[in-house]
């Protein structure tokens, strides 16, 4: 049996003759986009670019990172159709250099990672934000596993809980970290009732400690 790399798996998906997750931005990102300060924004595991293009149209300088060169090629085409520019970087998030105090916003929409890799990834995000910068995340949670066939990884290790994310993001000020039940319609592969965690967090000014809202309510 042939074992394919994650990049090969995603390249195959993004060769399909349609946008796998649609061309409209994620609903939660659309809800909180106005909270992102002016300046450069980094989109993680950005795939075919729908969120990056949306943010570029709002005036941000956007960099999209993904394993899939095919997905990012599609992202550039989508950006051109919308009359905006998105910088694209083919990279593994576990080795990507996020920089220090550079980004006004970091966007993690469905950037599911193994549990062992998440703490270091989220610590890198916290370091890379400017003071006042915003971290936005939506991911499926373990409670989503009872909803097969509507999207998301089928293994619990890739699905973070609110408690895990609060630990990972202890250096940021959490406005909310909440588990929600909601309907998702994003192309062919994210479609139906879903359980997700949504995070909105801010980088405190230099010398200020992060504060945790402890908001893990379920809706």
From TrEMBL:
InterPro entries assigned: Methyltransf_25, SAM-dependent_MTases_sf
GO molecular function list: methyltransferase activity
BP-aspect Gene Ontology terms: methylation
Sorted UniProt keywords: Methyltransferase, Transferase
Domain Methyltransferase, first and last residues per copy: 41-133
Transmembrane portions of the chain: none
Any one Pfam family match given in the protein's UniProt record, by short name: Methyltransf_25
PANTHER family: PUTATIVE (AFU_ORTHOLOGUE AFUA_2G14390)-RELATED, TRANS-ACONITATE 2-METHYLTRANSFERASE-RELATED
Protein name: Class I SAM-dependent methyltransferase
Biological classification of the source: Bacteria, Bacillati, Actinomycetota, Actinomycetes, Mycobacteriales
